[in-house]
Design a protein that fits this description.
By secondary structure, this protein is mainly alpha-helical. 82% of the residues lie in helices and 0% in strands.
Length: 206
Amino acid sequence: MIDPTSLAVSAMAFFIVAVSPGPANISNAAVAMSFGRKTSLIYGAGLSCGLVFWGLVAASGMGAVLQGSVYVLMALKVLGGLYLFWLALQSGRSAAQSEADEMALPDKGRWFWRGLVLNLSNPKSVIAWMAALSMGLGPDDGVVSVAAATLVCMAAGFANNALYSIIFSVSGMMAGYRRFRRWIDGFVAGLFAVAGLGLIKSAFSR
C-alpha cells in the first residue's frame, strides 16, 4: 500500500533540491525576464523533461549503476561541462551586446530543446533523485511505491520550473532585467562557467 506521508516526504525533499538556485533555475529566470512567460514555460518544460529522464534512470536502479561506472559517468560529466561552457559563452556574448544589438527571439521550439539538453547534460541529477526517493521510501516498499514517489517528484520538478517562469516574468522583474541586462547576463555567464568547470573537475576527482 502506498503511504501518502512517504510520498509527501519524497516530494518535499525533491522540491527543496529543485528550487535551490543553480544553472537550470538561474537560466530559466533569465529567460523569463528577457523573453517573457510563454517562452520561459516552454524552456522550463524542457528542463522538466530532462529531470524526468534522470528520474527514470534513478527509479529503475540504473542510477546506482551509473554512479559505479567510472568512465561512462566521466564522459557524461565532461560533455555536460562543455555544454555549460557553451552556455556561458552565449550569455557572455549577450552581456557584451548593446540594447540595439540584442539578439532576436529564437524560435520557441528551440527553447524546449535548450532546456532539455541543459538538464540531460547534468548526470548529478541522479544523485538528487536517489536522495529524494530514499528519504521517502523504505526497504520494504515495492515497485508501485517507487513509481508513485517518482511521479510526485516529477510533478514537483514541473511545479518548480513553472513557478520560476511565472515569478520572474512579472512586469517588474522584466523591467529590472532590461535595466540591468548586462550585469545579469554577465552573472549568468559566470555561473555557467563555474558550474561547467566544477562538473569537469568532478569527472576526474575519483
